[in-house]
Amino acid sequence: MQAVSLDQPAPAAIIVTGHALPEAKADRAYAVERLTRQQIEQSPTHELDQLLKDVPGVQLFRRSDAHSGHPTSQGVTLRALGGNASSRALLVLDGVPQTDPFGGWVNWPAYDPLDLGQIRVVRGGGSVANGPGALAGTIEMTSRDDGGTSGELDAGSRDSLEGRGRLALDAGSGLIALSARVERGDGFIPVTATTRGPADKRAPYRNWDLRGRWSTPLSPAVNLQASLDGFHDWRTRGVDYTENRTNGADASLRLVGEGAWRWSALGYWQARDLMSSFASVSPGRVTASRVSLQDDVPARGMGASIELRPPMPRGIELRFGSDARRTDGESRELYSYIDGDPTRRRKAGGDTMTVGGFVEATADVGPLTLTGGARVDHWEVSHGHLREWLLATGEVTRDDHDPTRQGWLPTARGGALIALGGGFNLRSAAYLGWRMPTLNELFRPFRAGADATAANPDLDPERLAGAEAGAEFVHGAIRLSATGFVNRLKDAIANVTLGQGPGIFPGVGFVNGAYSERQNIGAVDVRGLEASASWTSGPWSLLAGVSLTHARVRDHGAAARLDGLRPAQTPRFAATLSGGWQQDGRSFDVTVRRLGAQFDDDLNTHLLRAATTLDASAAWPLSRRVQFIVRGENLTDMLVEAGINADESIERATPRTLWLGVRLR
Q1: φ, ψ (nearest 5 deg) of residue 327
Q2: Paired residues of 575 in beta bridges
Q3: Average model confidence (pLDDT) for the chain?
Q4: 197-244: per-residue pLDDT in tens?
Q5: Per DSSP, which regions of 202-315 are E strands?
Q6: Is 283 helix (H, G, I), strand (E, B) or coil?
Q7: Which H or E run contains 154?
Q8: All structural domains of the chain
């Protein structure tokens, strides 16, 4: 919703803040949605993963939020491409890729949306400047660059507390911004009342994140931007032996040149460390016992990129550059528990590397804008290993060392936009994209309750080809847009069910539940329609969005039994309707979301029912600098099914949650 910013500083001396290069002219030809600073501030939710659900087509792998879901199940995708926990959309913050270096999931608690200036969603594959990985699209987060002081303290249901603050100070001609957030809560019982047992309990959470950002001019035409971030995320999954903890730290340095030649040079370093415990629940959900413990999963990512935009004739933009990213990680795991004690140890991991270059040109020819871009990347998977041994004797039972694999893959996109006059625009685009399999997918087998999934070191990269066409109408405060698209994802990586226990299966040993293996399946075909609308009139505003998709798996090989089925965790329909009013620091906003039914498994046997949720927020000024905040999520306490376990127990997403708070300008 549109809102008055509550933490703008009083007029002061002009300072230089940390902007990136301007948005590329090429993006005019693609389906782009924005979440503005005002929308972020007035949203009933303060969690980034839930905020993104307002964008048509954005889909999280699980319906659970980042406080109640497992941290390794938090991938993000677009346009019904489905998948597993690894993200098929490229998430970046100030140009830095944000998915976990080992597993490709997203640590959502590491980000405070109120510390962001804008979120831009570019739907459709083939991002040429941000690197490979944008199969479904790119989610670009931009840090706030304003001065001033702000803060907020909220208390909510189930003894939940949230505290956040930001201090941005002039530093000569630059700006130093420090921000922090702390969250905690006793959580809810994830398993529904009708299917839970004595083993089920609340799932508490604790997390914090800290961020420092410094921006200063080195010369009239060159700006330096430096960031240092850290976060801690701890939660349980509602039964004994399901504690999870992730620690992370990021550092980045960016130079931006604004002379005749516009350019940007970026370098970054990332570290993650995961601890994750998994449990099996007895029949009737009476007791829980540990089945594995990832006691240490260190992972690192590092990379660099450069982009140049030379001076060109009026109406033409040319940009070119290069980037590289390296990841390494290892899962160190205790498993095969007997009477509460582990009997085996496993280490699995490796390295990946991508190096690529890109070029993109855009030209205005009268009312027509034409754009085309391409990149080529060299990819490599190396040092892959899986070693298992008996703790009692040290006997090695498995010692796999996989050969280095490498190759070249292209990325491309092209589009056109024509302005018809009267606020009408038509556009079309086509694109190619690809994604590396993660170290987790390649090398680490895992268990979830009674089920087990084997790794596959021979996985090939996923490749996507797609096309879209759209129309937009803008007149005053009214904006209407619609986009139709078709996508084909070849060699899609999926957890393919191959058998049912009890029994002994390759790569995982004894399995009591379902046995799966990560495999490249033939393809996922998707066609769909996305539409959005917005309207403002004085203090009133209205936003609406809808996504309609038809997605099917196509395979005639090992995964032939999946042919014609819908990808797991992929709804046909999703819609959002938001309305609000704001004036003189007072505001009211309400959001209704409708999520269609989706299957929890690849065989389409476990259906998660459709659900409609209602969120609302209101603000009232107590003084010139302080606001009283009331927020509510899932106000009707709708049962949103998030998963179906092997014992047919049902997990739910977050129930009704109420918040009261104060916000300092």
Answers
A1: -130, 145
A2: 546, 594
A3: 91
A4: 999 999 999 999 999 999 999 999 999 999 999 999 999 999 999 999
A5: 205-219, 222-235, 244-258, 262-281, 288-309
A6: helix
A7: strand 148-156
A8: 25-231+239-256+266-664 (2.40.170.20)
